[in-house]
Design a protein that fits this description.
Distance between the termini: 31 Å
Number of strands: 4
Number of helices: 8
Number of domains: 2
Low-confidence stretches: none
Helix content: 55-70%
Length: about 210
C-alpha cells in the first residue's frame, strides 16, 4: 500500500504537468499542441497511462489476500472507509492488541495534537510522531463520511460553530478511528451508530459480503 501511494503521488504529479503544459499554451485540447510541446504531452500521457495500469495491477495483487479477511470485511462497513482505506488500516495497524487504549491509538495515528512550548506559553501543533499513513487514511475517511452521511455532516457543521475546518475534520477522523479500534479489538461488526445516532447502513456491494449478524 505504501508502494501504491508513491505511484499515486507520481500519477498526480504527471497529471498536473499535463494541465500545466496546456495552461502554458493557453489551450484546452492537446490536439492544438505542435512540435516539442506535442511530443512532451505524448510522453506524459504515456506515463500517466502506465502508472494507472500499475496502480490497478498492484491493487489486484492484494485482493485475494485481503478481501476475504474478516477484519477487512468489518472495516468496510464503517462510514468513510472503503477498500483501499481498509487495506491500509489493517496493514499499518498490524496487531491491534499492542494499543493499550484509545489515547495510544490516536497518538500512533497522529490524531493527537502535540504541545509546543515557547516563551512560557503552550500551543498545540500537528504531531509528527506516529504513522503518517494512518493519519492520511483517517483524514480521507472523515472527508468521505462528511460528504455521504447526513448525520456525520450535521455533526461536522455543529463543530464548525466553534472550531476551524481542520480541527473539525480531525474530530470526525478521531471518531472513525475509535470505531475502528473497537471493531478490530472486539471482533464485532460496526453497530451503525455515530455519536449515539443511527446512520444508514452501507449498500451491499463488492468487496463487502453479507455480515454474519444480519
Amino acid at each position: 500500500m505504501r508502494a501504491r501511494l508513491k505511484m499515486v503521488e507520481r500519477h498526480t504529479s504527471v497529471t498536473n504537468s499535463i494541465h500545466l503544459l496546456l495552461d502554458k499554451h493557453n489551450i484546452d485540447s492537446p490536439d492544438q499542441l505542435e512540435g516539442i510541446s506535442r511530443y512532451q504531452y505524448e510522453q506524459l500521457s504515456e506515463l500517466e497511462t502506465l502508472l494507472s495500469k500499475q496502480i490497478l495491477s498492484l491493487e489486484k495483487q492484494l485482493h485475494p489476500i485481503l478481501i476475504p479477511d474478516d477484519d477487512i470485511q468489518r472495516l468496510l462497513w464503517i462510514p468513510g472507509i472503503g477498500k483501499l482505506n481498509a487495506f491500509t488500516i489493517l496493514l499499518e495497524v498490524d496487531d491491534i492488541k499492542r494499543f493499550e487504549d484509545i489515547k495510544h491509538f490516536f497518538s500512533y495515528c497522529r490524531l493527537s495534537p502535540a504541545a509546543q512550548n515557547s516563551g512560557g506559553k503552550s500551543r498545540q501543533r500537528c504531531s509528527k510522531d506516529g504513522n503518517r499513513y494512518l493519519k492520511l487514511t483517517f483524514s480521507n475517511a472523515a472527508i468521505h463520511a462528511i460528504m455521504y452521511y447526513p448525520v456525520i455532516r450535521n455533526y461536522y457543521h455543529s463543530l464548525l460553530r466553534r472550531k476551524n475546518k481542520p480541527v473539525a475534520r480531525t474530530i470526525i477522523a478521531k471518531e472513525i478511528a475509535e470505531i475502528t479500534l473497537n471493531v478490530l479489538k472486539l471482533k464485532n461488526d460496526f453497530n451503525d451508530k455515530f455519536k449515539g445516532h443511527f446512520i444508514p447502513r452501507k449498500s451491499l456491494q463488492w468487496p463487502r459480503v453479507v455480515s454474519p449478524s444480519y
